[in-house]
Each structure stands twice: as structure tokens, then as C-alpha cells.
Amino acid sequence: MKRSATLFLMTILPLCAATFASAAEPVQRLQRATGLWRVMPATSPFSWEICVDQQYDRLIEDDLWSDFEQECQIASQSRQGDSYHFQSSCPGAMLAGSFKGDLAKAYTLIADTTMELNGKTEVQRTELTGVFLGACPAGLTPGAKKMRGGMVMKSLYINR
Q1: How many CA atoms lie within 13 A of 97 on its CB side?
Q2: Phi and psi at residue 33, in whole multiples of 5°?
Q3: Do residues 30 and 103 lie in contact, with contact meaning Cβ atoms separated by under 8 Å?
Q4: Which residues contact residue 98 at a Cβ distance below 8 angstroms, ignoring those fewer than 6 apart?
Q5: CA torsion, points 82, 51, 47, 62, in degrees to nearest 10?
Q6: Which of 3, 15, 99, 151 could bond to 84 as cystine, CB 3.0-4.6 Å?
Q7: What is the pLDDT of residues 119-133, one digit of tens each?
């Protein structure tokens, strides 16, 4: 009996921990399906394609705020269906966003960055739409971004 109880606890506790960890950080770790994604900012003509490897993908870190995971702290977050809302504190700014989508076919991310600039509160809105295009083309490594016009930026996954 003692052995089976120990085995039960050894099996259940890691599963519970994994469940709580994933529930605690859905926003930080929004991960798109593996393959090629086209990302289109609503307020800029500079769209790009990114070859995603789901295991390493960090949508907010890769497409919105570099070093988000190291620099920012999530103050609040909520999930309802395929929507997430979050507020975070970052160096010199507050970042609040909403995400809607399934991360397999398409998504929309809207974020407001609020900061003090010359004694005034400024808000910068970023709106991104992502669409899954299928398999990554040969020669485009996972994590690499192909910018509109053809320039390819090296992989974002180098240190992950």
C-alpha cells in the first residue's frame, strides 16, 4: 500500500505542477503552430513571414517586445475561450494587450504601450494579425523572419 501511494504521488504531483504552470503563464508563452506565418501590422506596411517551431516560439517576445520574458512582469491576465487579456509592467512602460485566435490558423494581437515622454503620458497601439501559410520553405530556418522585400533576419531561437 505504501509503495502504491508513493507511486501515485510521484505521478500526480508533476502533472499538477505542469497544469498550474501552464495556467499561470498563457500570455507569456503564446506559441503558434509549427510552420510559416505571415504577420501583418495594421499600422505599418512592414509585414513579415516567420518560420515557427512551436517548441521555441514566443509570440509576444518574437513579434511585440524583445526580451519580454526577462524584462516584464505580468500584473494580471485572464482567459476566456480563445481570448487572452494581460497587463504587464516593463522598464519605463506598461504593456496591456488582448489576443484572440487559435494559434493554429490565425490570430489578432492588440497591445497598448503606455509610457511617460517629456512629462506627458503617451500610448502607442500595436495591432498584429497572423495567418498560417503552411510548411516553411526550404532555406528559411526556424525562428528566421523574412521581411517584406526579401531581407531575412537570422533566427530568434538561437538562445532558446
Answers
A1: 28
A2: -65, 150
A3: yes
A4: 83, 84, 85, 86, 109, 110, 111
A5: 70
A6: 99
A7: 999 999 999 999 999
Amino acid letter for position 37:
W
Q: Which of 108, 75, 104 is nearest to 90 (CA)?
A: 75
Q: Is the pLDDT of residue 99 over 90?
A: yes
Amino acid 127 reads E
The sign of the torsion formed by the CA atoms of 26, 86, 65, 52 equals positive
Give how far the C-alpha of residue 70 lies from the chain's centroid of Cα atoms, to the nearest Å: 13
Residue 57 is placed in which grid cell? Answer: 516560439
pLDDT in tens, 23-70: 334 455 789 999 999 999 998 888 999 999 999 999 998 988 988 989
